[in-house]
Known about the structure:
The protein has 172 residues and is α/β, with parallel strands linked by helices. The protein has six helices and six strands. Helix 2 links the parallel strand 2 and strand 3 (58-63).
Amino acid sequence: MKQGFVQVYTGDGKGKTTAAIGLSVRAAGAGLKVFIAQFIKAGDYSEIKALKKFSDHITVRQFGQGRFIRGKPADEDIAAAQQGLGAVKSAVLSGEYDVVVIEEGNVAVTCGLLSVRDILDIITMKPENIELVITGRGAAPSIIEKADLVTEMKEIKHYYQKGIQARVGIEK
């Protein structure tokens, strides 16, 4: 890619991760290399199983403990996030990847696992030809300001309001 941009998918609606995964699959289909760092999440979600089929073009690494963080994060949560931050910086600077996704990066900031400065530093260090995608609700205004594209997912209606739990293959 000659020109890569910074994309942010945020908001309270469903579809932020789905959009990033879709972009990753499209990039892989075009022969681009993708690095996805998942913060917060851990486990063998359906998207992880599917993305393994694209492992020649898409690398996924998880840097979360797989639990909701309320209050002050535990030391192991912080350590995992810091490891992820290092991996993202390495991926951005390696020359190996065309697209780097910081999945739930905004939530990692909100939870105190990463700082806004950490994300802004990655945006600043990003080479011109790398596409950087940051997902998660609650994107900081300064991250939105630095981005080239910002999409806010807004919930209008969702069946979970009727008690429907997350379904395998659709939400998880």
